[in-house]
Specification:
By secondary structure, the chain is an alpha/beta fold. Helices cover 43% and strands 18% of the residues. It is built from 13 helices and 11 strands. The chain has a 5-stranded mixed beta sheet, sandwiched between helices. A 4-stranded mixed beta sheet has the order 8-5-9-11. A two-stranded parallel ribbon has the order 6-7. Helix 2 packs antiparallel against helix 10. The protein is globular and about 55 Å long.
Length: 329
């Protein structure tokens, strides 16, 4: 059964090959990288930059080809393909890993980070390295963290100015039990679904809305069908760049070091693009007439998260991670 699944995933990846843009044709070996975001999105461009750096560092032995726009599938499918070695590299939000790698639950906790700068200090330091190392037990090698912005609720029905306004509403969340419970703790109903299905689901009334950052709210076109955006900033979840352990093991020690260096060096490039994209997306969305709620008391939202922390931060290891993150200045 596992062999048949591997073959099926390989066929899916092969079918998508014709759709990709080869950015490093000169490399002797081109690594396939997946991203659900469209071409030009900061994470896509950052992995392209990583490919350029990698080609330079390996004298043309290795390059990267980015399959953007979910050409290789939605995040859950591409994680499995990466574990099987069908995909070499994958840029994914930490959310879909929450049910697989327990350490990823901590940076995914609501309001765990006080700000984006706080998140950078944590994920760029020893705590971030510890979380990246946890991927190795799951046939993956964690390389670097990218920004995912702060996620807030948007919907097609009404402005949300308090926790009470969320009660009974239906919101799409990533396929993560924690995110389901987060929305439930606020009195709303969570509907896990692939990112690519959200637009039509809001449009047809299957769900009332979703939650995401400025660039995703923009690039997905969700602001066209869900015009109310409340900046509650409940999540500041990093994105992660991972490599298949099978691919990693096929590389020399020298090339493994080059991969890690190129990935780390692509991070500031990504962050610069991200900040510019956030500003551009916000301006576009405001100009389109979306109603943005900025004056909101976050305290009741934060207090509502206690059962989420109680449920997911249970082991001494996770409690220690939470404490160290909160103590990071």
């Amino acid at each position: 059964m596992k062999l048949m699944k591997t073959i099926g995933l390989a066929m899916l990846a092969s079918a998508a090959m014709v759709m990709a843009t080869v950015s490093t044709q000169a490399a002797e070996r081109v690594l396939r990288s997946s991203d659900t975001h469209p071409d030009g999105y900061p994470t896509v461009e950052a992995v392209k930059q990583m490919g350029k750096l990698l080609e330079e560092k390996t004298n043309g032995r290795l390059g990267v080809e980015v399959f953007h726009s979910a050409q290789l599938g939605q995040e859950k499918d591409t994680i499995e393909q990466t574990q099987f070695g069908v995909i070499d590299l994958n840029r994914v939000s930490l959310g879909p890993f929450n049910n697989i790698i327990e350490e990823t639950q901590v940076p995914s906790l609501p309001y765990i980070f006080r700000s984006v700068d706080h998140m950078h200090k944590v994920m760029d330091g020893p705590i971030g390295e510890e979380i990246l190392k946890a991927f190795e037990a799951h046939d993956l090698v964690g390389l670097a963290f990218y920004d995912g912005g702060s996620r807030s609720f948007y919907n097609s029905q009404k402005p949300i100015t308090s926790v009470d306004d969320l009660k009974g509403m239906k919101f799409r969340v990533m396929q993560s039990d924690m995110f389901v419970d987060m929305v439930g703790a606020l009195g709303a109903n969570a509907t896990p679904m692939p990112y690519g299905e959200v637009y039509s689901s809001i449009q047809t009334g299957v769900i009332d809305g979703a939650e995401n950052n400025w660039p995703s709210y923009d690039s997905s076109g969700h602001f066209e069908v869900a015009k109310y955006y409340t900046l509650d900033q409940h999540l500041i979840v990093p994105e992660v760049l991972v490599m298949s352990k099978k691919t990693w093991d096929s590389l020399s020690a020298e090339d493994q070091a080059a991969v890690k260096e190129a990935a780390k060096e692509s991070v500031p490039y990504m962050r610069d693009l991200w900040q510019a994209q956030e500003k551009k997306s916000e301006e576009k969305i405001r100009a389109a007439g979306a109603e943005i709620v900025t004056d909101i008391d976050k305290t009741p939202f934060i207090e509502a998260m206690k059962p989420v922390y109680d449920k997911y931060v249970t082991s001494d290891k996770l409690k220690d991670l939470v404490q160290r993150i909160q103590e990071t200045q």
